[in-house]
Write a structure and sequence with these properties.
Layout (H helix, E strand, L loop, with lengths): L9 H12 L2 H7 L4 H9 L6 H9 L4 H11 L3 H11 L17 H5 L8 H10 L2 H14 L4 H16 L1
Helix pairs in contact: 2-3, 8-9, 9-10
Length: 164
């Protein structure tokens, strides 16, 4: 790698002297075109400006700057989680014991008497619940009188299955 040294004359040195003496924060705000000050600010953990981000897309940053920021960016994820858990107040768990409330499991197993269908009756018949199936078929024959003959035939078949 070749090292290039720039020769500065007195005029150039006098113009750049304030840039080198100012802190990077002041230099970046005073001279927005001075990319080195913006890079130094970013390297110290500051935010990256949109102009510097755009510049970075077309001209990558020098390697020595990227290495420090990559090391900061590639922290151990467990370290971040631990820090979050320590800084965030923990949730309080509910008191142990039974919580007062109603038993919702009873409602889930109760059958709605208005909810009947031929398919439900067939399922009950296949499971061996012939009395429930015959009850549904009789209610269906009352609801749909045009199909009462059909349901009566099924009921006689259920009666034969019950006796087996």
């Amino acid at each position: 790698m070749a090292v290039i040294r720039l020769q500065m004359n007195d005029e150039t040195a006098s113009r750049t002297a304030p840039l080198l003496c100012d802190p990077p924060e002041e230099a970046a705000s005073r001279y927005p075109w001075f990319v080195a000050a913006q890079l130094l600010l970013w390297q110290r953990g500051g935010t990256i400006t949109p102009a510097l981000r755009l510049r970075q897309q077309f001209r990558p940053l020098p390697d020595f700057l990227l290495k420090k920021n990559e090391a900061a960016a590639t922290r151990d994820p467990f370290e971040v989680i631990e820090k979050f858990l320590q800084e965030t107040p923990s949730r309080r768990s509910p008191a142990t014991g039974t919580l007062p409330g109603e038993d919702l499991s009873r409602e889930s197993v109760t059958e709605d008497p208005d909810l009947i269908s031929e398919e439900l009756a067939e399922i009950y018949a296949k499971q061996g619940f012939y009395s429930k199936a015959s009850e549904i078929y009789t209610r269906l024959s009352l609801l749909y009188p045009e199909k009462s003959v059909y349901f009566a035939e099924i009921l006689t078949g259920l009666g034969d299955s019950e006796s087996d």
